[in-house]
Design brief:
The chain has about 700 residues and is an alpha+beta fold. The protein is about 20% helix and about 25% strand. Among the domains are: about 220 residues, outer membrane lipoprotein receptor (LolB), chain A (Clam), CATH 2.50.20; about 180 residues, no CATH class. It is built from 17 helices and 27 strands. The strands form six sheets. Strands 6-5-4-3-2-11-10-9-8-7 form a ten-stranded antiparallel sheet. A six-stranded mixed sheet has the order 20-23-24-25-26-27. α10 runs parallel beside α12. It is flat. About 55% of the residues are buried.
């Protein structure tokens, strides 16, 4: 605004400074096209997603997924699980027909499933009951935080999710946070699944559909048969063709133990609402067409989805409850919120208007600010105003109900008095509310001083306090004048929001125990890749489950010798009065054939021996005195046999003769161990080995 003496010239107010508001990018036309199929046996090599997380404290590392498999050990006579089976194709087809017949007779089926979307997105764990007439009900659960009740009827998905669940569905789908406790019907958007985190027509997962897949796979002349161990206490065989794997008991009565497939290429199972824009070709999938995932490279942003499920027959009570739930959801559901402004109005939303004249010719000058709650919930508010030469003044407004306004007026000196000139200046105002900035007013003050605010990243109001805390932690140690820090932080968080990762970051920040939050913007550069996503999930789970864990994400740990060490993450904690000091390197495995090369690379990184690549992360090295932990995350795409394997299964397989040479990659040439603790995580749990001789690794013997 302009101040001048009574005979001066007029002027106009200068708009307040600050970062531009975020924009919501348009959704892509359709999911990425599938790659050209390679050879038959390259079936489970796409980048899929499993929900894998690490905890500390009591048990070092814990898994988020509850088990969706049962115990049983593989046959070690062929080196472990995965040994070839010599049954003829006719025998395979006969076993498949028997299992399919049993499935067809079921009134419904219960599935404990893990769905891995394409593009490095988090795995969704599902517990579903599906009837033989295509109705479904159950639950979805996201990594670390976020749950929803679901139902399916008439080619439509219905959801009743909490705010953390909706926040992970991306800025195009997750705005309707007020849907908590209500049924919502996700709309079929052009080029999108009804829900990207579970892009399957749940009603098509009926017993008849699974029976059809069992027949297709077991009767295929190219089927590969392997020993699958003894899940559920019965010897089993896996049958694999391209991306489809079914596991059947090896003796009568032949039943389906588990199944894994790409829903986009496994008819009669179908995807949910995948259709493109006019003039845009979408991938054509027919009953006989197979799409094989791309091989395991360093970039998994464009890989196929994958579903792994363990079935059991549903009871009549369960199928009746499913039909009732589907009918209730269809009757009560409302459309999702797709209006960005409507999303902003959820909860309290305070808007300030400056109603004083732009030109002040008197001394003192008067001012008047009006604050209106344009949201849909009441909240307390404090108006802060500042003028040239006058420090910030708080004006408590009390609780403002939706639609209610309160004004603050007063006078301040005319800065042009005695100059004979017109002086242009800016008056600032902002509103603090715990509903926006959280309980600590200093968070709001620091962000205001940096010209940052939660609205710089698009989230609905219920999540703004957590976002404000995250913004503050990432920037508060940098100079207020460092605009580059602001820009990098906002860019990193907007990208994370597009990837559905903000709830994980908010969980980490809320703990207050991330030791290097100032490096977070740079560390987030890899979360569009599956490995980076999994590390982020594990750290969020760690700080949530271990209240004593202090974590350095992406390293940055400065040791007493003055050197800085980096691994995927480093943490300290305390258990029973004993300090834990661990340095963790994480490898995410989407193809079983990549297991040992990735283990070799991770072991070398823990010891500063891996020099490929470049940038700030090279070379990585565990700090002196820290336990070196190599963690292997098994994704659904490794197939149902390995994804559901028990520790006994994995121990027998890893220690088999076929991997004798590969196991020595866990040893240094000097005969020392490269790894102190090996951890494999899959749907069956977290499996740990501190004595590596249990899996056939004897480093000192190898040097004799």
């Amino acid at each position: 605004m302009d101040d001048r003496q009574p005979d001066g010239e007029s002027g106009q107010q200068t708009p307040p400074k600050g970062p531009p508001p975020p924009t919501i990018p348009p959704p892509p036309a359709h999911p990425p096209a599938a790659p050209v199929p390679p050879s038959v046996w390259q079936r489970a090599t796409g980048r899929q997603k499993t929900l894998l997380s690490v905890a500390a404290a009591g048990v070092v590392l814990a898994v988020i997924l509850t088990a969706i498999s049962s115990s049983g050990g593989p046959d070690d006579s062929t080196g472990g699980s995965g040994g070839p089976v010599a049954d003829s194709s006719a025998v395979a087809a006969a076993h498949g027909t028997a299992a399919a017949t049993a499935l067809n007779e079921l009134p419904g089926i219960h599935l404990s499933a893990a769905y891995a979307p394409y593009g490095g997105k988090p795995v969704t764990r599902a517990e579903l009951t599906v009837t033989n007439d295509g109705k479904a009900s159950g639950t979805f659960e996201e990594p670390v935080t976020g749950k929803a009740t679901m139902a399916w009827s008439g080619e439509q998905l219905y959801l009743k999710g909490d705010k953390e669940f909706w926040a992970q569905q991306g800025p195009h789908n997750g705005h309707d946070l007020t849907s908590t406790g209500r049924w919502v019907a996700p709309e079929k958007r052009s080029g999108y699944h009804m829900l990207d985190s579970f892009g399957v027509n749940a009603g098509s997962l009926s017993p008849k559909s699974l029976a059809a897949i069992v027949r297709q796979v077991t009767s295929d002349p190219a089927v590969v048969q392997e020993d699958a161990g003894s899940p559920q206490g019965r010897r089993s065989i896996s049958y694999t063709v391209d991306e489809q794997t079914v596991v059947l008991t090896s003796d009568a009565p032949y039943t389906l133990v588990s199944i894994g497939f790409n829903p986009a290429s496994s008819r009669p199972v179908t995807t949910a609402g995948w259709h493109g824009q006019p003039g845009v070709d979408t991938p054509a999938v027919s009953a006989g067409h197979r799409v094989v995932p791309v091989d395991d490279g360093n970039d998994g942003r464009f890989a196929n989805p994958y579903l792994v499920a363990v079935p059991r027959p549903a009871t009549e009570k369960e199928t009746d409850a499913t039909r009732a739930a589907a009918a209730e959801a269809a009757a009560a559901a409302v459309p999702p919120s797709s209006d960005a402004e409507a999303a902003r109005r959820q909860g309290p939303n305070f808007v300030t208007r400056f109603t004083s004249p732009y030109l002040c010719t008197s001394n003192p000058c008067s001012y008047d600010f009006t604050v209106t709650n344009e949201g849909d919930a009441a909240a307390e508010a404090v108006l802060h105003v500042s003028f040239p030469g006058i420090p910030d003044r708080p004006h408590p407004l009390g609780t403002l109900k939706p639609g209610q306004s309160k004004s603050v007026s007063g006078t301040r000196p005319n800065v042009a008095a005695g100059t004979g000139k017109t002086v242009r200046h800016t008056d600032y105002s902002w509103v603090y509310s715990s509903a926006t900035y959280g309980p600590d007013p200093k968070v709001g003050q620091r962000l205001y001083a940096r010209e940052l605010k939660p609205d710089d990243v698009f989230v609905a109001t219920p999540l703004k306090p957590l976002l404000a805390n995250l913004l503050d932690q990432m920037t508060k140690d940098a100079p207020v004048t460092d605009e580059e820090v602001n820009e990098k932080t906002i860019e990193a968080l907007r990208d994370a929001n597009n990837e559905g990762q903000l709830p994980l970051l908010m969980t980490i920040a809320a703990s207050g125990r991330l030791q290097n939050p100032g490096e977070l913007a740079e560390s987030l550069s890899g979360i569009d890749r599956i490995g980076g996503v999994r590390v982020l999930q594990q750290i969020a789970h760690l700080v949530k489950t271990d209240p004593q864990a202090k974590v350095w994400y992406d390293g940055g740990y400065k040791a007493s010798n003055g050197q800085t060490y980096r691994t995927d993450y480093i943490y300290t904690s305390n258990r029973d009065g004993q300090e834990l000091r661990r340095s963790v390197q994480v490898k995410t495995i989407e193809s079983w054939g990549k297991l040992w090369p990735r283990m070799k690379g991770g072991a070398e990184q823990l010891n500063g021996e891996h020099t490929k690549g470049g940038g700030k992360r090279q070379p990585e090295n565990a700090p002196p005195g820290f336990e070196r932990v190599l963690q292997i995350n098994l994704e659904p795409s490794v197939g149902p046999v390995f994804f559901n394997a028990s520790k006994a299964d994995l121990t027998k397989f890893l220690s088999g003769p076929r991997y004798a040479q590969a196991r020595q990659n866990l040893c240094k040439p000097s005969g020392e161990d490269r790894v102190d603790r090996l951890v494999l995580i899959n749907a069956a749990g977290t499996h740990e080995w501190t004595d590596l001789t249990e899996i056939g690794v004897n480093c000192r013997a190898a040097t004799r």
